[in-house]
Design a protein that fits this description.
Blueprint: E1 10-14, E2 23-29, E3 32-38, H1 51-54, E4 70-73, E5 76-79, H2 82-93, E6 101-105, H3 111-125, E7 130-132, H4 139-149, E8 167-171, H5 175-178, H6 183-191, E9 195-199, H7 205-210, E10 211-214, H8 221-234, E11 244-245, H9 247-254, H10 259-266, H11 270-282, E12 286-290, H12 292-295, H13 300-313, E13 323-326, H14 333-336, E14 345-346, E15 350-351, H15 355-365, H16 379-385, E16 396-400, H17 404-407, H18 411-419, E17 423-428, E18 440-443, E19 452-455, E20 460-464, H19 477-487, H20 499-509, H21 522-527, E21 530-531, E22 557-558, E23 574-579, E24 603-605, H22 607-612, E25 620-625, E26 628-636, E27 644-648, E28 676-682
Parallel strand pairs: 6-7, 6-16, 8-9, 8-12, 9-10, 11-22, 12-13, 16-17, 17-18, 23-27, 24-26
Antiparallel strand pairs: 1-2, 2-3, 4-5, 4-18, 14-15, 19-20, 20-21, 23-28, 24-27, 25-26, 25-28
Helix pairs in contact: 3-19, 4-13, 8-10, 8-11, 8-13, 10-11
Protein name: Assimilatory nitrate reductase catalytic subunit
Pfam families: Molybdop_Fe4S4 (PF04879), Molybdopterin (PF00384), Molydop_binding (PF01568)
Organism: Deinococcus soli
């Protein structure tokens, strides 16, 4: 047969990166995908894929790809067979008290792996301590929505509704770099005559497209929302979406947030506050979308609450084209927070604290309800407890698909904690900085080497399809979890005949939960995607969810008075804020290795601030906080507030050496990534190149 007549199969799947979850076709030749083609019928991206998605195939056969288990011997990670690796797991974990073991998951896992990881932790390990890196993403918005209307589905409407907005407030959401395919909707809003405000301490690519930019001081977004509510009350624009608890108290609290106070606290002018207020008051369908900017704070839940209250009390919450919604970040950040890898959660967004919910899942798993642990540590608390010999400390940690050495707050302390563990087991497909500290590394599967489902930022469930098999001795992640359960002598409930058996169990496990996927199947998703809840196989999906009656005991929303503090206004004080760059993703385990995604770690500083500190573009500057220090070259950024310093968190030995691992939001348990007092110091030394963990050669 000639080369010209060879058949080239295609496999439709989803992108491994952001929560848009673009669909594309992989063209496979000789067992490897060679090309990505965007699909025009993708319900969100409509035929677009960003640069990261187009470059994703570069990682598939990267020379550093993990293809065999690695066991630490004599201080070095050494290739071993699976039998020896699993024997280590048996000996290491088999005799530890369950409460001394932790599990750290990921918002990149498929729904099925999220479900299985939660089941594995609570049934095979019997530990209460499981959480995931999504705690650093959507947790504050999720907490605010859940305590207000009883559920959280990110965008509670199809993305196509975005263009029906005549005023869009993007609060701390740089979608041009973090969710690029959504930019088509911003264009659609402007084409229809709508107004877009980017509310961000930095002038970003998004703010340039939006055309209107407000730059409040980091940590004051919620105060700005309270100021808008104050004006809406003064101007007679209070028309609640529905009866709700707490409205009187919330409106009375807003009386204190005059334009003068808000302008002072936010570092804006009164004219700025009035202009934004007038735009909101005059809009028919104003929509507020929050990103990580207002959420990654120790008062992130209350900040989101302030914006949610504004939308609800002005009658826009749940309105087509209007209201409030958060923008999910990670690829399966939505599904990842619904099915059991959160410390307080069971499948279908059930509560681990609810006796009825516990009984339902215990019956499915064929265990006693009393054997299911109560909620354990949240993500940062889990990492803080690692290696602590005292009561409440952890001796062992299993990490899958995450790199907390880079992504967690207080990365220096986290690194030392992980070094202090007796056993650190990492499941991944590339050698992350966390894997470099492991006592055992297990080679897992990449996105196009596994089947499953993901749930995008609008609650849309889609199929992820396997295009190729794992290389060498690498195994699919779900099989590894089942292997670990067997090694621990607890195979019951983990002996699936194939992936389909696991997937069908997952769908069944969500039946009756808030996030009900029980009407789904691979066959139904082959025909069309679906937005949850989907309660039966022949019934419809639910494109719009944020409408009364709400999923609360009495069907009413409960508004809460935001407890907000303005950050320090000390003269010349600087605040560090962290975030992302367009060509990088999360901790950079994949994107920093990808030759098509070039980016450099720099510190962004306003030219006037740099001048005051004797710094020029390209100079090395050392950032110091109460938690650590990091050094990088200076980039002069005129669109940045003078009192703000920005650094991206994709690199090791940088941003999260500077953030606080101890102070957490009381509701979401979110660390304060966005506002850390910082000082600048010119560094008269050569910047060392970022180092990668030392791993033994992989066969």
């Amino acid at each position: 047969m000639s080369q010209a007549t060879l058949h080239t199969p295609t496999v439709r799947t989803t992108c491994p990166y952001c929560a848009v979850q673009c669909t594309f076709d992989l063209h496979v030749e000789r067992g490897l995908p060679v090309k990505v083609t965007p699909t025009k019928d993708c319900p969100v991206a409509h035929g677009t894929v960003c640069k990261k998605g187009l470059a994703a195939l570069n990682d598939l056969r990267h020379p550093e790809r993990l293809t065999t288990p690695l066991l630490r011997k004599g201080g070095e990670l050494t290739p071993v067979g699976w039998d020896e690796a699993l024997a280590y797991v048996r000996d290491a974990l088999g005799n530890l008290p369950p409460e001394r073991i932790g599990v750290f998951g990921s918002g990149s896992l498929t729904n099925e792996k999220t479900y299985l990881l939660g089941k594995f932790a609570r049934v095979a390990l019997r530990t209460p301590h499981i959480d995931y890196n999504g705690r650093y993403c959507m947790a504050s918005a999720s907490a605010a929505l859940n305590r207000t209307v009883g559920y959280d589905r990110g965008l509670g409407f199809p993305a196509d509704d975005l263009i029906r907005s005549d005023l869009l407030l993007l609060v701390g959401a740089n979608v041009a770099e973090t969710l690029p395919p959504l930019m088509q909707y911003l264009k659609g809003i402007k084409d229809r005559g709508g107004i877009i405000y980017a509310i961000d301490p930095r002038a970003t690519t998004t703010s340039k497209v939006a055309g209107r930019h407000l730059a409040p001081r980091p940590g004051t977004d919620g105060i700005l929302a309270l100021g808008l509510l104050h004006l809406m009350k003064q101007w007679g624009k209070i028309r609640p979406t529905a009866p709700a608890h707490g409205m009187t108290q919330v409106l009375a609290h807003a009386d204190d947030y005059t334009p003068a106070r808000v302008a002072h606290d936010c570092g804006l002018t009164e004219a700025d506050v009035f202009a934004l207020g007038r735009a909101y008051a005059e809009a028919r369908t104003p929509l507020i979308l929050t990103g990580r900017g207002p959420e990654q704070h120790t008062q992130g839940t209350d900040t989101v609450q302030a914006w949610l209250n504004l939308a609800f009390l002005t009658g826009h919450f749940g309105k087509v084209g209007g209201g409030y919604a958060p923008l999910t970040g990670q690829g399966n950040g939505q599904g990842g927070r619904e099915h059991g890898q959160k410390n307080d959660q069971l499948p279908g967004a059930r509560s681990l604290r609810d006796p009825h919910h516990r009984a339902e899942i215990a019956a499915l798993w064929e265990v006693s309800e009393s054997d299911l642990p109560q909620p354990g540590y949240s993500a940062q608390e889990l990492l803080n407890a690692c290696g602590d010999p005292a009561e409440g400390g952890l001796d062992a940690l299993i990490v899958i698909g995450s790199n907390p050495v880079v992504s967690a707050a207080g990365a220096g302390q986290v690194t030392q904690n992980l070094r202090s563990l007796k056993h650190l087991i990492v499941i991944d497909f590339l050698p992350s900085e966390t894997a470099g500290l492991a006592t055992l590394v297990l080679p897992g599967s990449m996105w196009c080497e596994e089947d499953g489902t993901t749930t995008n930022l609008e609650g849309r469930v889609q199929r992820r399809r396997r295009a190729v098999t794992t290389p060498g001795a690498a195994r699919e992640d779900w099989r590894i979890l089942c292997d670990l359960a067997a090694a621990l002598g607890r195979p019951h409930g983990f002996t699936y005949t194939d992936f389909r058996a696991l997937q069908d169990e997952f769908f069944r496990a969500t039946r009756g939960g808030k996030a009900d996927y029980s009407g789904l199947s691979a066959e139904r998703l082959d025909r069309a995607t679906a937005q949850w809840p989907v309660k039966n196989a022949s019934g419809p999906d639910t494109p719009h969810v944020y409408a009364p009656p709400f999923l609360t005991p009495d069907g009413l929303a409960t508004l809460h008075v935001p407890q907000l503090r303005a950050p320090s206004l000390a003269p010349r004080a600087l605040h560090l804020t962290t975030g992302r760059l367009g060509n990088q993703y999360q901790s950079g385990t994949q994107t920093r290795r990808n030759p098509a995604l070039k980016a450099e770690q720099t510190v962004q500083i306003h030219p006037d601030t740099a001048r005051e500190h004797g710094l020029n573009a390209g100079d090395l500057v050392t950032l110091r906080t109460a938690h650590g220090q990091a050094t990088a070259p200076v980039t002069l950024t005129p669109g940045l507030r003078r009192d703000t310093v920005f650094i991206a968190f994709h690199w090791p030995q940088s941003a999260n050496l500077l953030t606080d691992p101890e102070a957490l939001d009381p509701h979401s348990r979110m660390p304060g990534f966005k506002t850390t007092p910082v000082t600048l110091h010119p560094a008269h030394l050569t910047l060392p190149l970022p180092t990668r963990p030392t791993l033994s050669p992989v066969s």
